[in-house]
Amino acid sequence: MSRDTLAGGTTADRPDRPDRPDRPGLLDRPAPPRGPGRRRARAGLTVLAIVLSALSVFPVLWLITSAFKPRESVTDGRLVPESVTWENFRYVLTEVAFDRWLWNSFLTAAVITVGALFFHSMAAYALARLRFPGRDGIFVVIFSTLLITPPVILIPLFIVVRQLGMLDSYAALIIPPLFNAFGIFLLRQFYLGIPRELEEAAIADGAGYWRIYWSIILPLSRPILAALSVFFFLANWNAFAWPLVATSSEDLTVTQVGIASFTTQYGSNWNYILAAAVVAVIPMLMLFLFFQRQMVESIKTSGLK
């Protein structure tokens, strides 16, 4: 009995075979026409997306345009300023220690991001690929910390840092934010999807756990590490509550705390505050544009998994 007979008939009796010139196959048949209801739904979703995008972009546009307005025109409610001035940016960049604030924010955010990616990836590798007693319990304890909001542990963390003698130092700004359950959880879920055959082949060649982590796991983790680096850097660049509590020296002031101090120093001079906010946003935009491709690749990889 032939294969075509077992499949339900001969080739001549199969209407979906492309070798019949008089009867097209399934792939050659035109797609059914879209009805008016489907077109209306697609148009409605498009309009909704445009409206939501406009609502998201408008505050940013207002921030940028208002930063170029004189003091008396900041609260006029107009998106396009009548007159443009660079005095706000000149004052922020020359009359206050804004460059020091930017350096403190960049230093702390960069060190925290690099250290967090290193320690989180090692912890996630151990929790996802190694077998040892209590592994699942440790992961549950780490994951449960995501349910605790940062303000709840702010005072206990302050007491611990004070007892360790790290208050008002870079150590107080860097060490506590290094540990975050979100990065460990996300990397662990990513590592669970890596085929074990890669590790087995490396072990057969004599590689140890550290060699496997450094030469196999980390190179495969580049997309997800790039996305996490943007998230970690952005979160620590915009950190406000903990730097405000942990430091009091002007030499350790970060950007967000410095901008907040404008309201006490300059009162209603919102033109300076808006100009400082625009300068603080520029590094974030550059970081996003630089890592945009890696972030898209990480989303694609997570979707395929």
Automatic annotation (TrEMBL):
Residues 1-39 are annotated as: Disordered. Signal peptide: none annotated. Keywords: Cell membrane, Membrane, Transmembrane, Transmembrane helix, Transport. SUPFAM superfamilies: MetI-like. It is a multi-pass membrane protein. It is found in: Cell membrane. Residues 13-26 have a biased composition (Basic and acidic residues). Residues 102-291 form the ABC transmembrane type-1 domain. CDD domains: TM_PBP2. InterPro entries: MetI-like, MetI-like_sf. The keyword Transmembrane applies. Belongs to the binding-protein-dependent transport system permease family. This is Carbohydrate ABC transporter permease.
